């Protein structure tokens, strides 16, 4: 039986980790006391093993260590030169500071963010897309309420489950997290909205959980535009009210100029001037009011900016569906955070490889194929650009083969 037409001299996983800078990773670990008292299980081996486990979607330490035994010869060439037991990996996840993996992710993001960025020269891309940032959070359910404080209660038992909330900011033209913070599920995410870190011309899209008049006024003073969904309970003074109609006489959008007033704890008063843009959601058959401090964009552009917020929801869905975030390889807060950082690293690396393909793949389809072929000796770009190549070769050979003569005495 002949070799695959996609054959190469290293497993596909070796091509994935080629995107990592080993010396930089070791430097980040040393700077954060990650290599103290370490003999062989350094940060490189730790990261290679954890990435392998996350991409393969293993659910337990036993699955990881048993698989490492089966792939010993292949992993040996990737820097894993000794047998790794469950206790070794469990101890490393408990002791090695999770901030090291955070540093690795941030280094990778800084390295590849421009490669992932969509082409601003594309005529279909709005001019404001490059300036748009999206902020939101997602909760990952945990097995215990003792590590991270949970939120809500089970309707039957009345017990809480623990939860870790991942607060995230992404640039709309990149699609990967640019900033993340972890807290308990009970923590409100409004602290992630930091006007002081934003620049004039930036645009922020967010849901209504981030409404804060004081911060909104700071954004306005810095020349930063925000777009968020309106809360029904908000009180304001109406200054202007304009309705836009379609040629058929139906309401297309309603634009209201308003002032919000807030009494501060120190006795001061904030007056925040804003616009409420209400549009018709035809799918849900209801009116959706949006709040913004921008006075220049057309209502259609305000609606388009808010709809881009869905990108971050798709990112959360992508990570939860394609990586193991229901089962964790340790019970400590440090181990849980390490696994989430490694998931973010795996997600970024696969997106970088996806970006380099000529053939269009859904992320889910790509992640599944990578998982199946991770330890195969196949060239990633050859296989994923033309996965039918082997079958075409087999069928061509079969059609050219002369028919067998019937057996005769």
Task: Tell me about this structure.
This protein has 409 residues and is an alpha+beta fold. Among the domains are: 12-99 and 329-394, no CATH class; 224-297, no CATH class. 38% of the residues lie in helices and 19% in strands. It contains 14 helices and 9 strands. It has helices spanning 12-17, 22-31, 43-56, 61-70, 72-76, 86-95, 98-116, 213-221, 299-307, 310-322, 333-355, 363-373, 380-385, 389-400; strands spanning 132-141, 163-171, 177-184, 203-206, 225-229, 237-245, 251-263, 269-281, 286-292. A 9-stranded mixed sheet has the order 3-2-1-4-5-9-8-7-6. Strand 7 and strand 8 (269-281) form a beta hairpin. Helix 7 (98-116) packs parallel to helix 11 (333-355). The chain is globular and about 90 Å long. The relative contact order is 0.15. The mean pLDDT is 88.
Quick rundown:
With 409 residues, this protein is α+β, with helices and mostly antiparallel strands.
What is the percent of helical residues? Answer: 25-40%
Which blocks of ≥5 consecutive residues have pLDDT under 50?
A: none
Instruction: Outline the biggest β-sheet.
Output: 9 strands, mixed
Encode the helix/strand succession as letters: HHHHHHHEEEEHEEEEEHHHHHH
Radius of gyration using CA atoms only: 26 Å
With strands numbered from the N-terminus, the spatial order across the biggest sheet is: 3-2-1-4-5-9-8-7-6
Arithmetic mean of pLDDT: 88
Proportion of beta-strand residues = 15-25%
Question: Structural class of the helix and strand makeup?
Answer: alpha+beta
Q: Given the C-alpha coordinates, what overall shape results? A: globular
Q: How many H/I helices?
A: 14
What separation lies between the terminal Cα atoms?
Answer: 31 Å
């Amino acid at each position: 039986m002949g070799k695959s037409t996609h054959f190469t001299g290293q497993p596909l996983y070796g091509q994935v980790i080629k995107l990592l800078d080993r010396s930089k990773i070791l430097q980040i670990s040393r700077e954060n006391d990650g290599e103290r008292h370490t003999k062989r299980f350094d940060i490189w081996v730790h990261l290679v093993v954890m990435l392998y486990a996350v991409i393969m979607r293993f659910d337990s330490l036993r699955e990881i260590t048993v698989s490492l035994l089966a792939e010993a010869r292949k992993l040996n060439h990737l820097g894993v030169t000794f047998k790794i037991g469950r206790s070794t990996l469990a101890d490393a996840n408990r002791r090695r500071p999770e901030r090291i993996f955070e540093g690795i992710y941030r280094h990778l993001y800084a390295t590849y963010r421009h490669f992932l960025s969509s082409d601003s020269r594309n005529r279909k891309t709005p001019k404001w897309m490059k300036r748009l940032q999206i902020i939101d959070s997602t909760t990952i359910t945990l097995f215990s309420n003792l590590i991270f404080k949970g939120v809500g209660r089970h309707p039957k038992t009345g017990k809480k489950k623990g939860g870790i909330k991942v607060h995230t900011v992404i640039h709309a033209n990149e699609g990967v997290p640019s900033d993340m913070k972890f807290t308990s599920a009970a923590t409100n995410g409004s602290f992630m909205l930091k006007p002081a870190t934003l620049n004039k011309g930036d645009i922020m899209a967010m849901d209504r959980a981030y409404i804060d008049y004081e911060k909104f006024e700071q954004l306005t003073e810095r020349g930063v535009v925000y777009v968020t969904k309106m809360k029904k309970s908000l009180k304001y003074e109406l200054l202007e009210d304009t309705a836009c109609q379609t040629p058929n006489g139906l309401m297309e959008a309603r634009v209201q100029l308003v002032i919000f007033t807030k009494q501060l704890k120190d006795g001061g008063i904030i007056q925040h001037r804003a616009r409420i843009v209400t549009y018709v959601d035809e799918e849900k058959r209801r009116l959706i009011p949006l709040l913004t401090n921008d006075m220049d964009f057309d209502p259609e552009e305000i609606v388009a900016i808010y709809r881009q917020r869905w990108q971050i929801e798709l990112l959360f869905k992508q990570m939860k569906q394609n990586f193991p975030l229901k089962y964790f390889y340790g019970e400590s807060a440090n181990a849980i955070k390490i696994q989430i950082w490694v998931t973010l690293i795996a997600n970024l690396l696969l997106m970088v490889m996806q970006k380099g393909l000529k053939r269009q793949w859904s992320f889910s389809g790509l992640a599944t194929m990578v998982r199946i072929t991770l330890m195969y000796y196949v060239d990633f770009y050859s296989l994923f650009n033309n996965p039918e190549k082997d079958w075409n070769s087999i069928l061509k050979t079969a059609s050219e083969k002369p028919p067998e003569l019937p057996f005769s005495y």
